[in-house]
Amino acid sequence: MRTPLFLVLLTASTATAAPQQIHQSWQGPTDSTITIAWRSTTAGGTVEYGASTGYGKSVTAKSVAYGGSTLHIAELTGLTPGTAYHYRCGSSGDWSADQTFATAPKAGTPFRFAAYGDSRSDDTIRGQVMAAVKAVKPAFSIHDGDFVTDGNDQTLWDEWFGTMQPLLSITPLMGVLGNHENNSPKFFSQLAFPVHTPTTASYPDEAYFSFDYGDTHFIGLCTEPVGSIGGPQYLWLKADLAAAAARSHIRWTVAFAHRPPYSSSSHGSDLTVRDTWGHLFESFGVDVTFWGHDHNYERTKPMFQGQPVTEGGVVYVVAGASGAPLYASGTSPFTAFSKSVQHFVDVSVDPSQLKLEARDTTGAVFDSTTIAKPAPKSPWILDGKLDAAAQKVASGTPALSSLYAGFDGRYLYVATEGKSVPGDHFILVATSKPADLRVSPWKKAGQVWRYTIQLAMESSNGWSGWQDGVTGQNDPASTRASNPADAVMEGAIDLVGKYGTVPKSVFLAAAAYGSADAGKLLGQVPVGDANGDIDLGEWYELALTPPTPDGPRDSGPPRDSSAADGPRGDRPIGDGTLDAIAGDRGAEAGCGCHLTSPRQAPWAVLIGLGLLLLRRRRPRAG
Hints:
Blueprint: H1 5-13, E1 20-25, E2 34-40, E3 46-50, E4 57-60, E5 62-66, E6 69-76, E7 84-91, E8 94-95, E9 99-102, E10 111-116, H2 123-136, E11 140-143, H3 154-168, E12 173-175, H4 185-190, E13 209-213, E14 216-220, H5 232-246, E15 252-256, H6 271-283, E16 288-291, E17 297-300, E18 303-304, E19 307-308, E20 315-319, E21 335-339, E22 344-350, E23 353-359, E24 365-372, E25 391-397, E26 400-407, E27 411-417, E28 424-430, E29 437-439, E30 447-449, E31 453-457, E32 464-468, E33 479-481, E34 488-494, H7 495-499, E35 505-513, E36 521-525, E37 540-544, H8 585-588, E38 593-594, H9 602-617
Helix pairs in contact: 2-3, 5-6
């Protein structure tokens, strides 16, 4: 059907210099970038942004002629994680109203997102769903396809963006193609998403993509077409899932696409989608997926190899009615709940659970479920005795002789002598290379290079615990310590819970000071130059190696073990010293760290090289 001429003229005549169709998305990391797009009749455009309505910073948009107006797209980079910003877009004399956006928080911070799709056809219902979504204040939305009835008709896009602007100007939208987009260039011109790599001639660059938000990995896929096992999209998906599994801060994985592999409504289950991607979802532990195409709501039981299961499995949700004409709902052996209703899904995420609430156009909940996952738990035993899996990483002076460490992929363990050594004890931890000198902990004598957090033990009153290295405030939330009266002072830090990710390495130093105010440095690990300070060259850098992800739960693809082979590029700092590792127990027990020394004996180096060669020649599974 041809678009009536009067609609085309109306669209062109209503274009103004003031920004219209403002919407947000991500092309880069969600914690440090945002993309803002809009249309106007001006040739160029700018985004001004900052912590307040005074803004203070600006980015010039990339502007192109589009449909009788200009399309502007600006990507803001270098933003601060977990931060709210104000912005306005446009040009001098023709600015938008003040709007807001926020960057993603660190991993482990609770958030919520909305999922919906098939928003075509009825603009009134679309507006009702938009208002209901806006009311629950999601951090962002995902759209599972069929934005409009015909993706080649710009007037439908103009109507869609106009209706959705109150939501999309303040929260990002990430979406995928449906069949009604007709693979139109208009979809990719107006919506900016990440580019998948490697690119392929078989799909547009933004047809499928992934992004992380906090502790959750999101994957947008293309069913137009789905492709085949071994095809470009399949190989990309397999590699992307494996990479996400190797990132220790990722707790949840969510996928979304258009044609559903499980559905009891009009179109039914798309078995090509199920057969192509289902085993990858199951093998790599995808938690929940969202789909459209059938214009109703349906949630499956957790599924594994085509059958409902009581533990594990993947939940499939058809969220396909936010404006499209409703289809009758149905049920199948895999159905947990279904209903023919215009809706969206409100998803709340925290480290221990995903809570899904399906809401109608009034915001009322008509279905809900919770997917639980046990909270991360430290494997390190804090009982005042050295944990059996820890390694001795450095030796020191007679007054403080040893520093031990271990890493399980999330929790860092550190230990040194306890009650057997007099004075107040500290283990200093820096998550990046120390950059400048500061006063010693608790205003002891001398100086130390700046650190992030400290494990402290006060001999005079029996207190021990972790403290922030900048503020000095007690920090019990993501850290634990043993009793100071024990033979070993030990503690563990949830690096992901505290910092949102695992740094490539940490820098460690242990020290004992006299108990009095301004007490002198009595001993340190690694050995220092006896000048009373803990200088840059007197720290030990511990490279943190993420654990290899667990293998497939059943018949999924074999795990690539190549990342675990070979040296990991650890670097000693300055003239810091290290004695030989106390046995190889820590490495065999899964310490997860790699230790180096500028003073290792030549025979130790030769033995290490020999073991490395043997390891590299060992045949790999699969």
